[in-house]
Known about the structure:
Blueprint: E1 10-13, H1 17-27, E2 33-36, E3 54-57, H2 59-67, H3 71-75, E4 78-81, E5 83-87, E6 93-97, E7 106-110, H4 111-124, E8 128-131, E9 135-140, E10 145-149, E11 155-159, E12 162-165, H5 172-181, E13 184-189, E14 192-199, E15 214-218, E16 223-228, E17 234-241, H6 256-266, H7 277-282, E18 290-295, E19 298-299, E20 303-305, H8 308-311, H9 320-337, H10 342-372, H11 378-393, H12 401-406, H13 412-430, H14 441-450
Parallel strand pairs: 1-2, 1-12, 2-8, 5-15, 12-20
Antiparallel strand pairs: 3-7, 4-7, 5-6, 9-10, 10-11, 13-18, 14-17, 15-16, 16-17, 19-20
Helix pairs in contact: 1-4, 1-9, 2-9, 9-10, 10-13
The structure holds flavin-adenine dinucleotide.
The site of flavin-adenine dinucleotide has 31 residues, from helix 1, strand 3, strand 9 and helix 9.
Amino acid sequence: xxxxxxxxxxxxxxxxxxxxxxAILLARHGHHVDVYESRPxxxxxDIGSGRSINxxxxxxxxxxxxxxxxxxxxxxITIPMRGRMVHLDDGATNFQPYGxxxxxxxxxxxxxxxxxxxxxxxxxxxxxxxxxxxRCRSVDFDASTARFTNAFDQIVDVGFGTIFGADxxxxxxxGSMLQVNGGRFREDVLEHGYRELTIPANPDxxxxxxxxxxxxxxxGGFMVIALPNPAGDFTATIFLPHTSNDGPSFxxxxxxxxxxxxxxxxxxxxxxxxxxxxxxxxxxxVGDMSTIHVQGWSWADQAVLVGDAAHGIVxxxxxxxxxxxxxxxxxxxxIRDRPLDLAAAFAAYEAGRRPDADAIGDMALQNYIExxxxxxxxxxxxxxxxxxxxxxxxxxxxxxxxxxxxxxTMGYAEAETRARRQSRVxxxxxxxxxxxxxxxxxLAGALVSILDPLP
Length: 455
Ligand SMILES: Cc1cc2nc3c(=O)[nH]c(=O)nc-3n(C[C@H](O)[C@H](O)[C@H](O)COP(=O)(O)OP(=O)(O)OC[C@H]3O[C@@H](n4cnc5c(N)ncnc54)[C@H](O)[C@@H]3O)c2cc1C
């Protein structure tokens, strides 16, 4: 049995949200931690396309950031979003609040700015060395060495005692580990891709849309969303099939005319918000999205995966980074619970966390349909209204599904199970209802009383 550090150096591969956060948690065990990151230091180099990419940060991510005492810094760079602003075909908007409480807020945050705070905090521990432009290629578990290539394409072998794979969805640490631990890997690639666009600020620096909402332009089989940035601009993302026989797709939008008429037809009120829309559309590649299923997250006391490397998901619930950081917290707790038996801690981490990862993977896929089409469906809107009303009347037993994922820290698997049961209640109550006034509240009370109390 070994404790952290017994076998030798503690190495984290990947300095993204999961890796940087986990490194800080591991350093608190009293060990020196080496983080190897393939990209240059994002605090010093311009490594993006110039576009500010932002993410939705919610309660689980905040809990993890709180645990490493950086949330006050992060708060300074976030914009609170209180709900979805759904842009309808006729140019009207419909604001759908995220929840009942003032605290039911999702925060828009720049991916790079958040990552920079985490890297600063890592360095401030005095126990973490950050090694940039070191790309992991493979791991040799017999020799306890990881092979990297540096900025000059030279091979560098690094010895480790325990290696933490926080190297994202294409994780080479995972690739090497699955060859020795007999685990399994499956990647379900979504048939839809995405492209990012920018809605610039007004000339006076103000936002061109309400900054306290996540904007959605639903179009049935595809959609555009936009999240605010502090500089007054919005990062918009169009999600569309890669190819399609019976509708628009990235493959069918090859010429300037095709792009112009596509936006004019499907996103008439969005198009004027983006000057040079066509150039912006063609600037940058179409991104892929997938769900990563891994069985075998660790190898003895030598290696373990965290974040997208273990459980990459599609982005439609705004939870990938939140889940990645929460997994860091969960893993650290397992190490603390079994301080003298790292292998057992890693096994317990996977046993407890994988069902949660599977659940959020499923819910993220379901949320794509919710965002691109359900948000304008009368049946969905009635159930949503009823859901919030039941939450108000029975706060100890009923919580809307979205809120359980975004504003609670109960396991994702529990949230999914509860949501399934609640969905049956909603189906029954709305079977003959056309509006909230038609709901039988006695029946509602009886049905909700059968649900387990909320944790
Ligand atoms: C379009 C889109 C929108 C999204 N929106 C949201 C959102 O709103 N909210 C949310 O919570 N999540 C969102 N996500 C998901 C989120 O970006 C990821 O889940 C999150 O970044 C995962 O963190 P991570 O640290 O595990 O992996 P990553 O962020 O991928 O970080 C991995 C790090 O490892 C480095 N690395 C990779 N390979 C190597 C190597 N071989 N050697 C060394 N280093 C390596 C990378 O450079 C990177 O720094 C979105 C994703 C996409 C694609």
